[in-house]
Every structure is written in C-alpha cells, then in structure tokens.
Design a protein that fits this description.
Blueprint: H1 5-14, E1 27-28, E2 31-32, E3 37-39, H2 57-90, H3 95-123, E4 127-129, H4 144-171, H5 176-206, H6 210-227, H7 241-245, H8 251-275
Antiparallel strand pairs: 1-2, 3-4
Helix pairs in contact: 1-2, 2-3, 2-4, 3-5, 4-5, 4-6, 4-8, 6-8
C-alpha cells in the first residue's frame, strides 16, 4: 500500500538537519536550494529494487523520508555542478578541469535517479523532484576568488562530507540495492572532492599569491561554522537495525561523523595542501 505523500512531505519539511543528505550543496546567497517533491515518473530506474518485505509501514515511511531528502539534495547538486562548469569557463580554467566538472553533472543526475528510485520503492509510489528555484544563481561574472570560494564550499568540503557520510552508512547497509547506491555515492563523492583540490591547486599556481591566504581563511571559517552547529534533536523514530540496514544512520551518529570529518580529514588536508605546494592532499 502506498505511503501518504503528504505525510512524507511534512516529515521532510520538519527535518532541519542537513547531516544525512548527500550531494554537493546548491548555494544561492549563502542559502541552500532544494526542489519540491512530487508524485510522478521520470526519475526512477527499473534495475534497482530494495527488499521492503520485512519493514513495517512506519519503518518504510522513515526510510522513504531519508532517501527522498537524499534525492532532492542530489537533484540540487545537478544545478551546482552545471553552474560550476560555467564558472570555470569564465575564469579560463584548463580543459581537464572543465571536462571533470562537466562529467560531474551526469554523475549528479544518476545519483538523483538512484535515490528517487529507492525512495519510490519504500513509498510504493513513484516520486520525482519538482521545480528547483534557480533565480539569482547566475549573477555577475565571477572572479577567480569567487570560483575558489564556491569550490571550497561545494567540493572540497561539501563533496568530502557527502562521500564520508555515505561510506559510514554503507558499512552497516545490508540491503544489496542500498549498498550499491551508497557505493556509487562514495566513489563519485571522492572524485568530486579531488576535483575541488585540483581546481585550488591550479588557481594558486597560476594566480595571485593572495589567493592562498583567501583559501586558508575560507577553510577556517567554514570548518569553524560547521563544527559549532548544534547537534540534532532526538529523532522521534530512532533508527533500529533494519533502518540502518537500509542506509539510515541515527542523526546523532551522522553528526558525530561530520565532526570527525572536519577534525580528522579536512583540517589535515588543508594543512597538507598549503604546505605541500598546492598539490593533492590525498
């Protein structure tokens, strides 16, 4: 029996935490943008089907909410990836960086399809993203400094957080379909993160020496802001073993993963990158 779409939307609206979402953020004026979700075909694949037989209706609703949120984030990441291609072109980036950025657009489309396929299976109704608000996403021609700030926020930090969260969820994911999707998110997340560091390296080696100070300041600012965010409120439906098997970590566990990434991955990467002549930190 199909779950009520209205209840699903209400649950998504009530959830303010971004910790459990995958995909690089689509930011406009420092605010994340997401589409609405609608009932409809067009964002599913027939080749993916999780096993929902052992799940109660409540468990399915909880998992559907999480994977719908992931699908919306991945859908928004398509816009972020497309915008980044234009930004690289506007600052004269070399072809290998533009090619990597363009390939990421298709990756994000596939990520959204996979997440909405899972969400639709748990809901027992086809779910798809609606309209994504993009007003204000493209304004004045960006400077190289502007492009680097976007690169840090969306790739070096955003894609890294997404990849490690997916990897952590995959450790205990027992459903083969979910395990496969999380594997794709991990691999592509690290690929996009490495692209971000490549862009920063190119900019430092070919741009103004002042860019290094700007990069250092941005990383410090964003890591501090993310690290000081309050932990999530208690989940009224805490994840049990079956939920974890379907890719849903408890919110507090996701919060702890985020803090660990900031301290144990990102801070050392920034130090290695700037100390090592702007070369790949991993």
């Amino acid at each position: 029996m199909a779950l009520e779409i209205a209840q699903l939307l209400a649950q998504l609206e009530a959830s303010s935490s971004q910790d459990g979402r995958y995909g690089r953020p689509f930011m406009v004026s420092a605010q994340g943008r997401l589409a609405t979700v609608e009932r409809g075909e067009g964002w599913q694949t027939d080749e993916l089907r999780p096993d929902v037989d052992e799940l109660t209706r409540t468990q399915r609703h909880h998992i559907a909410t999480r994977w719908t949120g992931a699908g919306l984030a991945e859908h928004a990441a398509i816009a972020a990836a497309g915008r980044f291609v234009l930004e690289l072109l506007s600052v004269g980036a070399p072809s290998f960086l533009v090619a990597s950025a363009a390939a990421a657009v298709n990756d994000e489309v596939e990520h959204a399809r996979l997440c909405f396929t899972l969400a639709s299976a748990y809901t027992d109704a086809p779910l798809s993203p609606g309209a994504l608000p993009v007003d204000g996403a493209l304004t004045a021609t960006p400077t190289l400094g502007d492009v680097l700030l976007t690169c840090i926020d969306e790739l070096c930090i955003g894609a890294t957080l997404s990849a490690v969260r997916a990897a952590e969820a995959r450790v205990n994911a027992a459903d083969p379909a979910v395990w496969s999707v999380l594997g794709r998110l991990v691999d592509d997340g690290w690929k996009q993160s490495r692209m971000g560091w490549d862009v920063l390296g190119w900019a430092i080696r070919s741009g103004s020496p002042a860019l290094e100070a700007q990069i250092r300041e941005r990383f410090a600012e964003r890591i501090a802001a993310l690290g000081s965010a309050p932990p999530p409120e208690d989940d009224p439906q805490p994840a049990d073993a079956l939920l974890i098997a379907h890719g849903c970590l408890p919110p507090m566990a996701e919060h702890r993963v985020k803090l660990a990434i900031l301290q144990q991955v990102l801070k050392p990467c920034v130090a290695t990158f700037l100390r090592g002549g702007a070369n790949q930190p991993f």
